[in-house]
Structure formats: structure tokens, C-alpha cells
Amino acid sequence: MNWLKEVFKTEKPIIAMCHLQALPGDSGYDQEKGMEWVIEKAREDLHALQDGGVDAVMFSNEFSLPYLTDVKKETLAAMGRVIGEIKSEITVPFGVNVLWDAKASLDLAVATGACFVREIFTGVYASDFGLWNTNCGETVRHQHAVGAQNVKLLFNIVPEAAVYVEQRNIREVAKTTVFNCRPDALCVSGLTAGESTDTQILSEVKSVVPNTVVLANTGCRIENITTQLSVADGAIVGTTFKKDGKFENGVDYNRVKAFMDLVKEFR
């Protein structure tokens, strides 16, 4: 697990989500405000997160609802433009997540210089987005083909809004995923964005893969973060950093700082 501290320069890192507004082609895209507004909102959130003390940021097309598992070219192009426009202002390690397309995430990481991606790399699911299949072997070969060998792969093993076609115990999923796929980290989630990750599930996962990084992936709040970090090796945090703790809102610097002050005291 040495890579975690090498990349994030701290134990128990907090990776903050920088949710991009709806992009061209998305149902919620605001054509009147255009891409300049999308870029400015991303810039505002980035600075609030960095100024508040987070250890890293991850850019995702969170408002591209409903999500695709084969993302359109215009989405990838738009995300590349947003990150490119504000990259000189990024002062912490950053990653990308193109929802929900693992190869596209790797392509964006190479294009922008991101050092990690989070995705659904393994499994077959019944989901809100239809029957959802993956091909980890093909994706990892694509990773090497595009020169993304040094990009860390964060495997989400409890996909939001989806269940395995064949029900499997989370301990089995974690163990076989690590054995077969060699992930850099496992991300353990709640049911939806902002839904707490069960500490018991975190403990179960960590117990069977003690030498693999395990991250709390959703629902980390100031009320539970020290409990989560007592088990997890770090956390990915989005909704709780928003104004009033609401998914739809922009990032609130004061909420970020209060959260990170507590994390730093815990560390």
C-alpha cells in the first residue's frame, strides 16, 4: 500500500469530488450558459476544495444523468476541455471518473495527466442503466495500449444503483477481485451518492484483503468520518462538501474546512 502515501503525501487521504455540470449532449446541459459557465463552476468548486484542505480531487461528469456505460465522444471532449482550462490552478493530485466508462476514464487520464481513475472494472449487474457488463482484462490491456500504466485503478466493487446478476458475498467479491484483477484500491459504496458506506462492510472487505487499499466511497460526513477512517485507508467525499449537504449544490468552503480540520486532527 506504499503507493497511497507516495501519491497523496499523507496517510488516510481524502479525495474530494469535483462534480462537473451537465455537458453538451446531456439532457441537463444549459446551452445558453454554455461551456464557459461549466468551466467557471468547476473552477469555483476546485478552489473551495483545495482551499479547504483536501488531499486530492477527482473530476467526474456527475450531472450527466442518466449515465451511459459507453460514453459519447462529446462528453469526453468536454471533460478534457474543462480540466485543461483549469489544470494550471490544480495544486493537489487529481483523478478522473467518466461515468460509467472505464476505457474513457483511462483515455481522459492520459490526455489530462490524471494519476488515478475510479470505475466499475469488474462484474455483471442489473442496474438502473440496464444490464451492465464489464471486461476487466480488455480494459487493462487498453490501459497499457494508451500508455496509462502509471494511472492507479480504483475499483468500485459495490456499484451505486446496481446489484450483481448473481448475488455474491462482498467478502468473496473483494477476495476474487484482488486475486484476479490486481486493483490498486477497492472502493466500497452505499446505495447512491451521499448514502453512507456501512462500516461493517468496510471491515469485512479489509479483513479479507489486508494488503490492498480500501476506500470508503460514499456517504462520508463529519459525523462519521473518524469511524470510517478507523477502518478504511482513505475516503472519497462528494455530497457532504456541498452547500447544505445537498448533491445538486456547489461546494461550500466552510464545510470542507471543518471536515478536513477534523480529519487532520484524527490523523
Automatic annotation (TrEMBL):
Coiled-coil spans in chain: none
Tell me the PANTHER family matching this sequence. SGC REGION PROTEIN SGCQ-RELATED, ZGC:162297
Which species is this UniProt entry from? Hungatella effluvii
Q: Which family does it belong to?
A: Belongs to the BtpA family.
What protein name is recorded for this chain?
Sgc region protein SgcQ
Task: Please name the Pfam families in this protein's record.
Answer: BtpA (PF03437)
Q: What InterPro entries does the record point to?
A: BtpA, RibuloseP-bd_barrel
Q: Which domain of life is it from?
A: Bacteria
